[in-house]
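User: structure tokens for this one?
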Amino acid sequence: MAGLSPTEGAPRDDRIPRWFKSSYSKIGGDCIEVATNLAATRGIVPVRDSKSVDGPVLTVPAAAFSAFVTGVQAGEFGTV
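Assistant:
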């Protein structure tokens, strides 16, 4: 996924989330992390707050996450 880079020390087991956050994220900024490595094997994309890595995780169906990313890239949600 463009603009994403792996979180340091991420596990390589595709049964365990490998968290990524945007390379555009500012240090200490408000951002989310996603674990796209589970999309193919489990059909889900976990999403969490990068500032609360032990907090709750939102699990999104892979097809819905893909549609969301496509919409963002197409500018369907506007800009900040």
